[in-house]
Amino acid sequence: MKEDFLHYLWKFQKFQVRELHTVAREKIEIITPGQHNHLSGPDFFDARLRIGGQLWAGNVEIHIRSSHWYAHGHEKDRAYDNVVLHVVWEDDAPVFRGDNTRIPALELKTVTPDNLQQNYRKLLKNSCSFINCEKSMARVDPFLRDAYLERLFFERMERKSVTVLQDLKRSGNDWEAVFFRQLMRNFGLKINGESFRSVADSIDFKVVRKVQHEVLLMEALLFGQAGLLGEDETPDTYMKVLRKEYLYLQRKFGLSSAGVVPPYFHRLRPANFPTVRLSQLANLYCQRKTLFTLVMETDRVADFYSVLESSASPYWDDHYTFGKISGKHRKVVSRNFMDLLIVNTVLPVKFCYMRYLGREADERLLELARSLNPEKNSITAGYTGIGIKPGDVADSQALLQLYHAYCSENRCVECTIGHQLLKT
């Protein structure tokens, strides 16, 4: 038994509410159960209850056993002085406030339906290899499940919007700068995301605006800040030119690479080498001077492909690293890579920007997500294996949110699918 199950019982009143009594046999009438508090302090604020004919307004605290009140030290915490009802699974000890007045207790184990208890234990104690409800999730009403996944898609957008809004505050409401930082991180993918983001953080976007008229300067800026131009003499002519330009930019703009995380080459396919990706990004910003504005004005996937289309500079046609010649071919940004950029950069930034402007754009964002193929990873594969196959990016993003925020945290009683399984 866990407290989250008791929170679920109280919040949704999944017990016999008629003829409800405290352990002291005082009649309880629940007018409103209160607001669920997920932070420190009592579990439910501002409840309205009638106990023994007396109307009470105050807080509700929930424990597995009454004695946990003292185990948690609540008798010494004034934040709990306004608790008007102690909701417990088992009442094993009387509980008193700091002024020695006894707190009424409601024991749930005597008023909770047996089938609900059994379903809860079955759900949480089920031997599973992926998630708790892996044997029963596919049996949930598809209409209910799909509606919940749509809600989870926007919940994930909300979660991703946290870093976007932090960047907005940091940049003084400069949305172009916000988009640059977000795009830099996602150009680095999982391995070099932190490194590329640290490079973006080390550059005032005003500098990007001043150098993006010329690819050579833009590459010099990004490669130099990433520490890829070395400090010693090199026989590679292109690297020499870039290093010369970078030293000039460094003096002119007072650039510092303190705090920059060095990029990795190890365990990467050559197409994802930081040299190639940074060159592609440099060319993209030189081709699209107002990239953020273009992205915000675009809604169709085909148009996004046109906006995000880019390739590395000619030097990289036969190089993956400085000074080492390889087979010759253009290093273009692939459609699959652009899909990742749309999912991880465009969607969350667009989500935040529309709300910043006070515009409702949920349907447009959902339509865009529905037009992209679902992501393939171990989590979406896990859901596919239990009969929940994502049909598009909206589905795969929703499943990622479901897994990380609910399934892996055993928050089944806070999940709509978990609610449904508890009832059946």
Automatic annotation (TrEMBL):
It comes from the Bacteria. InterPro entries: DUF2851. This is DUF2851 domain-containing protein.
